[in-house]
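Dear support,

We are seeing what looks like truncated structure output for some complexes. This example has two components. We would appreciate it if you could run it in full and send us the complete token output so we can diff it against ours.
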Amino acid sequence: MKQTDSCLTLPNDIETIPQLSEFIDIFCEEHGIDMSLTMSLNLAIEEAVVNVMTYAYPAGTTGEVKIQASADEDTLTFVLSDSGTPFDPTTKADADTTLSAEERPIGGLGIHLVRHLMDSVDYQYTDGQNVLTLKKKIIHQ
Amino acid sequence: MIFDIKEQDGGMLATVSGRLDTPAAVKAQQEIEPLLQNANKVITLDCKDLEYISSSGLRLFLTIRKEASSKEGKVIIKNINDEIKKVFMMTGFFNLFEIITD
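Here is the complete output from our reference environment:
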């Protein structure tokens, strides 16, 4: 499989999430990814993108988030970038999944899912941009 | 509409279907209101046609579960597919609900 790239830019509006899901579905289809992994990737990337849409820009202001997807022989790479407030989601404490329903906080699951669904999650702040790189290894049958 | 709610013997039955992504979950916050009001009863969430759930969808399930435990009701989740089961395992939600298959 040769290195290929796809790119999508969305405004910080969660109503555009269906466009993201279509973008991921098409990318996965082009690379022969099975349905189960496609759903996992959809979920991880939705959570990471929603996180940017919700927190990167001050309320009431507009901004963008760019999603670049690429594939080589054994790895899928998704790079999210935005020019919002510097924020490293990888430093957030992991959700405690052993708590009872009464004790469970209502939030904090998004980044937990990103970490558990992907093989690696790396954050960098460069040239005024938050850059989050998500990687997933493809297991060939 | 994601949550289609009916009264049934002893409680409420909600058929949950489609994609519960972030924008859908925001809209569905209104839809679960009758379930929260009846959280002292048995609430059954039938998820056989639920295709996808994000963390904001999971939050709706947790909201219902929390309301039920404060009102001494009960939440049963029926027929989740394997992919959603995986998400439930990953987040510890599997242990928070009574999960059954028809």
